[in-house]
Design goal:
Distance between the termini of chain B: 35 Å
Strand order of the largest sheet of chain B: 2-3-1-4-5
Structural class of chain B: mainly beta
Radius of gyration of chain B: 16 Å
Order of helices and strands of chain A: HEHEHEHEHEHEHEEHHEHH
Distance between the termini of chain A: 14 Å
Number of domains of chain B: 2
Strand content of chain B: 25-35%
Largest interface: A-B, 20 and 19 residues
Shape of chain A: globular
CATH class of the largest domain in chain B: Alpha Beta
Structural class of chain A: alpha/beta
Largest sheet of chain B: 5 strands, antiparallel
Oligomer: heterodimer
Radius of gyration of chain A: 19 Å
CATH architecture of the largest domain in chain B: 2-Layer Sandwich
Number of strands of chain B: 9
Number of helices of chain A: 11
Helix content of chain A: 25-40%
CATH superfamily of the largest domain in chain B: Aspartate carbamoyltransferase regulatory subunit, N-terminal domain
Order of helices and strands of chain B: HEHEEHEEEEEE
CATH superfamily of the largest domain in chain A: Aspartate/ornithine carbamoyltransferase
Helix content of chain B: 10-25%
Number of helices of chain B: 3
Number of strands of chain A: 9
CATH class of the largest domain in chain A: Alpha Beta
Shape of chain B: globular
Strand order of the largest sheet of chain A: 7-6-5-8-9
Chain lengths: 307, 153
């Protein structure tokens, strides 16, 4: 990976992705031994700038940096920072680059990470920009898929909030590099946005759209479920019309193939019945755990580019 | 003297924009940031007959020669426009309108959640596609009503 920043999945070639995943596998194996890892970045400080709530992304980046021997500084919540005083994002990141060697940014506005990357000389990772992109999640999703089902000749169904789901936008874009067969299942009002459909079309991707999961479930190797995000809807009534429309339980999965892998970027609300958690199909907790080795690999590559 | 010449007389020095899509002249002026406050002459004819377009608009801007970059931006809303640079009543240069690869600072992103619509020191940038424009920040695509998104007024 030659980029200085990771702001969108479209930046990543197949070779870039494979390089990150291969490195992640090395870290995964090293972590599994339980032995201390060599401190590759003992003097390195990573800034965590989260303008929106986060559990997995923030904590896994923090863990990843610390496992690499570095440390983190956390801007804290928006209420506790100068953002509350009206400071622009551009000013904030210019200040923070004086404190840290890299910036992980989550922001409610689309394009925030790309703009931030134009104002600083340290690497910027987009950890979610509104309903835009979440490319580091995509890398751990691809790692999980590769481990569970393989990335060659993959048939994947992506279900739920495809309009506002940033993990979906990034994953779909990245999967074009692997010639995956993609089925998108959503209510009509939550179809993929025009920009993502444009990218898939330009890439010649094999794509079908559905409104019912049972049309496609038996064909799938991977079922990627997403939460319908109440916080992204401009209108509560529109949310209520589609809330709870796709709920996956044991009865749903009875129609699936034997080797289905069920994934979810989490948090879930009611999209996946907890009765599935202990089945062989469920991979979403493993997926979340993969956030650490994959983000170690991503940081390693970005920081080594920057040295 | 023909009707056409009566409507818009010759200018001594400046730029003549002809074959503008009928009804788009005011958008063209907005795009070029011309609002009359410059104090120089601006003539506008709208929806005049045209053999080629049916109807067309014509704009004559005195004492200002448009650059190629300005001409190319016009292609977004007036793709068939012709541009003549005039000196001492004579056409000294004809510029072709060509679609630029990208445009900066002339359009506002229609996505209200785009970072360019926040209070940030950032200039809007759009990549020009075959059939639309794409925000370089939020990746939103505009296909229809491009003139509605002009960032200048």
């Amino acid at each position: 990976m030659r980029q200085d920043h990771l702001v969108a999945a479209g930046q990543l070639s197949r070779a870039d992705v494979e390089r990150v995943l291969d490195r992640a596998a090395e870290f995964d194996a090293a972590l599994a031994t339980g032995d201390p890892l060599p401190a590759r970045y003992p003097e390195t400080v990573l800034a965590l700038c989260f303008y929106e709530p986060s559990t997995r992304t923030k904590m896994s980046f923090e863990t990843a940096m610390k496992r690499l021997g570095g440390d983190v500084v956390d801007m804290g919540g928006v209420d506790a920072s100068s953002v509350k005083k009206g400071e622009s994002l551009a000013d904030t990141v210019r200040v923070i680059q004086g404190y840290a060697d890299g910036i992980v940014l989550r922001h409610p506005r689309e394009g925030a990470a790309r703009m931030a990357s134009e104002f600083v000389d340290v690497p910027v990772v987009n950890a979610g920009d509104g309903a835009g992109q979440h490319p580091s999640q995509t890398l751990l999703d691809l790692y999980t898929i590769r481990e569970a089902a393989g990335l060659d000749d993959l048939t994947i169904g992506i279900v739920g909030d495809l309009k506002y789901g940033r993990t979906v936008h990034s994953l779909a874009t990245a999967l074009t590099e692997f010639d995956a067969h993609m089925h998108f299942v959503s209510p009509e009002s939550l179809r993929l946005p025009r920009s993502v459909r444009f990218d898939l079309h330009e890439a010649g991707a094999q794509v079908r759209e559905h409104t019912e999961l049972d049309e496609v479930l038996p064909e799938l190797d991977v079922l990627y479920v997403t939460r319908i995000q109440r916080e992204r809807f401009p209108d509560e009534d529109e949310y209520e019309k589609v809330a709870g429309q796709f709920q996956i339980d044991a009865e749903t999965l009875a129609a699936a193939g034997d080797d289905l892998t069920v994934m979810h970027p989490l948090p879930r609300v009611d999209e996946i019945d907890p009765e599935i958690d202990d089945t062989d199909d469920a991979n979403y907790f493993e997926q979340a755990h993969n956030g650490v080795p994959v983000r170690m690999a991503l940081l390693d590559l970005l920081l080594s580019n920057h040295e | 003297m023909s009707d056409h010449e009566l409507r818009v007389s010759k200018i001594r020095n400046g730029t003549v924009l002809d074959h503008i899509t009928g009804g788009s002249a005011l958008h063209v002026l907005a795009l070029l940031g011309i609002d009359g406050s410059e104090g120089t002459g601006v003539s506008v004819a709208m929806n005049v007959p045209s053999d080629r377009l049916g109807t067309k608009d014509v704009v004559k801007v005195e004492e200002r020669e448009l650059s190629q970059a300005e001409v190319d931006v016009l292609s977004l809303i007036a793709p068939r426009a012709t541009v003549n640079i005039v000196q001492e009543y004579e056409v000294v240069e004809k510029k072709r309108v060509e679609r630029p690869g990208s445009v900066a600072g002339v359009l506002a992103c229609p996505n209200s959640s785009c970072i360019t619509n926040a209070d940030e020191p950032v200039t809007t940038r759009f990549d020009v596609l075959d059939d639309g424009l794409r925000c370089r920040y939020c990746e939103e695509i505009i296909r229809e009503g491009i003139a509605d998104h002009l960032a200048v007024s």
